[in-house]
């Protein structure tokens, strides 16, 4: 009981100094807690829960250091609640970050879940201010913007709660579905640079583009997300696939 009280007092004093007065109160609870006043290290075990404002995170155990303002939640991590005015529900094996800035953290270890109208499945996800990154991204689906993405590495920016831009590298695969219900465009390449404000996705390196009835190969390609059209340079090759029924009718 004595260790628990000392830790809670230390946390309260620390958070009062580390965050602005207008910030929400941060609470850390668990079945067991230990704190070393000399090193600043602390440990929490069993039913660990951290809550600040509208967002919470749970895990089996956690550890951190008061002096370096860092923490790590381990084993069966679950983040849920509301973040940037949208519901969030993410699971992974590790969640790390800094006490002074709740928007600076990373999750890793089979990270999977949703944020608003977005679905994520990746090995590692990082958020620092308005910047985000992902590694070994198996799937990122944005239901509002209408695309699904996978790649080796992803780095981008968030503005007003939406992804404003990103750069994807390695085994890039993007499928855009027009909002007006047109045919999807399937794009592959070595690199892709997306700009929401420009309405463009620039794909480079071993580019292929597929739409219903036709395929395109090129070194470079610009996909216009609103018009659902492509511009290709670097020895483009366009192939049209005839419908099998029409081929049989001609015979």
Describe the secondary-structure layout.
Elements: H1 2-18, E1 26-29, E2 32-35, E3 41-52, E4 55-65, E5 70-83, E6 86-98, E7 101-115, E8 118-128, E9 131-142, E10 147-159, E11 162-176, E12 185-195, E13 200-211, E14 214-224, E15 229-233, E16 237-240, H2 244-250
Antiparallel strand pairs: 1-3, 2-3, 3-4, 4-5, 5-6, 6-7, 7-8, 8-9, 9-10, 10-11, 11-12, 12-13, 13-14, 14-15, 14-16
Structural descriptors:
mainly beta, 16-stranded antiparallel beta sheet, 2 helices, 251 residues
Please give a structural write-up.
- This protein has 251 residues and is mainly beta.
- The chain has one domain.
- It is built from two helices and 16 strands.
- It has a 16-stranded antiparallel β-sheet that branches.
Summarize the structure.
By secondary structure, this protein is mainly beta. The chain contains 2 helices and 16 strands. Helix content is 10%, strand content 67%.
Average pLDDT level: 83
* Element-level helix/strand string: HEEEEEEEEEEEEEEEEH
Tell the overall outline. elongated
| Assembly category | single chain
| Distance separating the two termini | 87 Å
- Gyration radius from CA atoms, angstroms: 23 Å
Portion in strands: over 45%
* Helix share, percent: under 10%
Number of domains: 1
Number of helices: 2
Main beta sheet, described? 16 strands, antiparallel
Structural class determined from secondary elements: mainly beta
Number-wise, the strands total 16
Poorly predicted runs: 1-23, 244-248
